[in-house]
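testing teh design pipeline on a random one, pls ignore if ur not involved
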């Protein structure tokens, strides 16, 4: 890793007034969370995402989709945040405004102590009513779900319960996306970690920050991703390795 680039990044971060951190699946890799596709192993290898991660798939085979997400939810609850998650949480003590915008559904940023986290794709540890009968999202605790069916049902309207994640063919939560865009418009520094930069609309956020506010973009990824060409600094390496070193250098 290029030490000069790390030092430059630390210098920029130290002065950041409105920092946005955008994270993707690579952020969670060192915690042992497989990406959606990596998780299609064993019994699940015969399926493709369209059979498991769309509202249509759920309507066709609610039990199958529910069991797939329950398996992944249990896995998420077994793992721990890593040093990179804790380093991002530690930024809150050093900078006036830090918001994490994540595409991950595992909740690891909050578990590491970050307090301002926008979950663009929802949270796999939560459940909601499939009909969103009390407004979107109608969140439901597992303990309040009713019936003997798999999936169990919403206690208010009797519709099936489902995971609180964004499926293919669904809109992102409007409030989360609006706030994410607004923060990117006003950010002076954007730290991008572990995203391939191909899944929209999340991938467009760094472009928004660059074009409208001329934010300084720092990208952390072991491989050059789609966003790297517009970034001011590319830090090649993993989240668990680079982020703690960055915070250390900020303090030096
Ligand atoms: N640290 C940092 N980055 C890493 C690491 C690591 N340890 N390991 C891998 N990466 C990088 C990869 O090089 C890749 O660029 O993380 C990126 C992961 O890319 P994707 O799997 O495409 O993840 P993401 O960009 O989050 O995809 C967005 O797609 O499947 C949907 O909803 C799902 O949120 C996900 C979305």
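output:
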């Amino acid at each position: 890793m290029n030490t000069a680039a790390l030092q430059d990044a630390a210098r920029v971060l130290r002065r950041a007034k409105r920092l946005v951190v955008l994270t993707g699946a690579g952020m969670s890799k060192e915690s042992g969370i497989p990406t959606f596709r990596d998780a299609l192993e064993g019994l699940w290898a015969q399926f493709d995402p369209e059979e498991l991660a769309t509202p249509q798939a759920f309507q066709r085979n609610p039990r199958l989709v529910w069991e797939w997400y329950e398996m992944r939810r249990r896995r998420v609850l077994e793992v721990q945040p890593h040093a990179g998650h804790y380093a991002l949480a530690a930024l809150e003590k050093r900078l006036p405004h830090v918001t994490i915008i994540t595409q991950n559904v595992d909740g690891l940023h909050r578990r590491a102590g970050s307090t301002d986290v926008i979950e663009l794709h929802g949270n796999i540890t939560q459940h909601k009513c499939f009909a969103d009968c009390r407004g979107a999202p109608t969140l439901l605790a597992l303990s309040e779900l009713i019936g003997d069916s798999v999936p169990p049902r919403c206690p208010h309207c009797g519709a099936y319960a489902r995971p609180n994640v964004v499926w293919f063919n669904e809109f992102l939560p409007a409030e989360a996306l609006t706030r994410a865009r607004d923060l990117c418009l006003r950010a002076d520094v954007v730290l991008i970690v572990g995203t391939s930069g191909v899944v929209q609309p999340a991938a467009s956020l760094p472009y928004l920050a660059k074009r409208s506010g001329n934010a300084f973009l720092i990208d952390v990824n072991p491989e050059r991703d789609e966003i790297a060409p517009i970034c001011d600094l590319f830090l090649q390496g993993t989240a668990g390795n680079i982020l703690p070193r960055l915070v250390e250098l900020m303090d030096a």
